[in-house]
Amino acid sequence: MKITEENQNGCKVIRVEGRLDTLTAPEFDAAGDRWTGGGRQVIDLSALVYISSAGLRSLLLAQRRHQSQGGTLVLAGPSGLVEEVLSVAGFDTLFDIYKTVEEACRGTP
């Protein structure tokens, strides 16, 4: 898994590539400690090819941590298996999920 962070027009974007599973979830969680504070932050899942239940747990913990500090954490770009897993797990009701990072930063589809 590879995690990169950048700012796009005042919107923090966290790009996750590869697999988010039992082996990589601790790395994601540790990186999540840096995503603190308020504001809107986007987790770009467009390059994520697999997510397990451990990865789902990590996303949920990141969201709860961010919300507790008054921020908004949204997801962008899931496709294929990742999109299907998020839907089956009901994460589409727990997160705002956008097709693109640009839409996620704007907050509109």
Main attributes?
39% helix; five-stranded mixed β-sheet; 109 residues; 35% strand; single chain; 5 helices; alpha/beta
Structural description of this entry:
The protein is 39% helix and 35% strand. It has five helices and five strands; from the N terminus they run ββαβαβααβα. The protein has helices at residues 25-32, 53-68, 80-88, 91-94, 101-106; strands at residues 2-8, 11-20, 39-51, 71-76, 97-98. Helix 1 runs parallel beside helix 2 (53-68). The longest helix has 16 residues, at 53-68. 30% of the residues are buried. The model has no long low-confidence stretch (mean pLDDT 93).
The overall pLDDT, averaged over residues, is 93
Shape: globular
Summed up, the helix count is: 5
Structural class based on helices, strands and sheet pairing: alpha/beta
Strand content: 25-35%
Estimate percent helicity. 25-40%
- Distance from N terminus to C terminus (CA atoms, Å) equals 28 Å
Q: Give the strand tally.
A: 5
Catalogue the unreliable spans.
none
Sheet with most strands: 5 strands, mixed
Q: What integer value in Å does the Rg equal?
A: 12 Å
